Input
Amino acid sequence: MIKNKHLRSLVVLLTVIAIIAAAFSVAVFIEKKNNTAKTELTVEEAQTIVDREISALPNNIAPCAKYVAENTKVTVNEIEYGYEKNIILKCTYDTVDIFTPVKENVNELLNVDLIDPVTKKTKNATAILLEIKPRLLALMENSERLSGEVEIVLYETKDKGLTLYLDDAMVDKVLGGIISAKNFVNSTKEITVDGETIDISNRSSLRSGCIDCFKLKNYSSEKPDTSSVILGAYNNFKTQFYRNFIEDNRYMYLVRGLGTTLSITLLSLLLGLVIGFVVAIIRCTYQKTGKLKILDYVTRLYVSIMRGTPVMIQLMIIYFVILLPIGIEKFTAAVLCFGINSGAYVSEIVRGGIMSIDDGQLEAGRSLGFNYVATMWYIIIPQAIKAVLPALANEFIALLKETSVAFYIGVADLTQGGLKIRSITYSNFMPLIAIAVVYLVLVLGLSYLVSLLERRLRKSDRG
Output
């Protein structure tokens, strides 16, 4: 039987998450099985759709694109039905290679006089198209043919019925590298004519005129969403998870940020413990003996300021006002700020522990021949530490959460790592939830360790 309440809460939370994940997985599996296309196609019907869509791709003023489409044959050989209301057409294609002749002859194609000899005006893209058109057609008439296998997908949508999915890679493959040719021309910034290099980076009309020769009509390369509500949510979750964490190893922003957060927390805690114990001893000494009056006043002022102002404001003052002008780096500034802030809370915890020790313990130490310092060190403080240890552990947990504001001064902590992912993907849900989950797991784990410590101390007290 699980007795510890924190461990029990953690087990319940993990169990609920596991049950929800299992139920969702079963629902997704059932949805996938029931998400096949209702339309049944014959090979001939599929062939008609493919021929119609391929022939409609060339732009009206693109003679070379029309030539490629007219000399392209896509043959549907087999039909398969997928689980996304999609129909997969196994096809073979035979087409004209347009990319190779464009790439090998780009210098000759773009060697065009931009000034009209008759009108003495700069030629526009249409005039350049008319001049380049016969050169390209001549090249393609002698170009090699390309053939191979390709999968073309039809999706069954509610609004448009069967929709052919035309992505850039498939169109480029079927039409002989026409998109690669367009991109190549568009990226060409200089050509070589008779051994002389000519800069055409500013001659956009020249490149546009050439590209217009094999320009295609606008088509959507976005895959239609044919999934149900549950399956759509599942697919969206997978996509968002991949974009936010897997793509380009973006999860490393969180991993590196977590390391920075834990480093700041541990170092700040050590600094806070040192400051806290010193401040607590000074204040207790004044309360018990009346000595160190000035130091007591200073420490009380310090505690009041630290506890009375937001830690974020303290952080920005310490870094931007005090440390940045003298060249102290952000990480060090964060450690100093959180350590000084934590020291104020630790001092009150320790002071409460020391003051809870009966005055008879102090008198007993003095009767044994110890002076005040020795009595505090050997008798009072050990008992006080044992009494306040759980409270100090809880201060460590609070400090861990407080360090989340370190990103305000540019420290690459866990929060900054999540916000970095958010700035790249423009997604709010995944990165912020990931930050919250990491902090939650850390706090639950530390809370469990604190509860173990409290039980151990209770047992030693009974012993």
Summary: Strands lie at 73-81, 86-96, 145-157, 161-165, 190-193, 196-199. The two ends are 24 Å apart (CA to CA). The CA atoms of residues 55 and 457 lie 82 Å apart. The chain has three domains: 1-35, 43-226, 249-462.
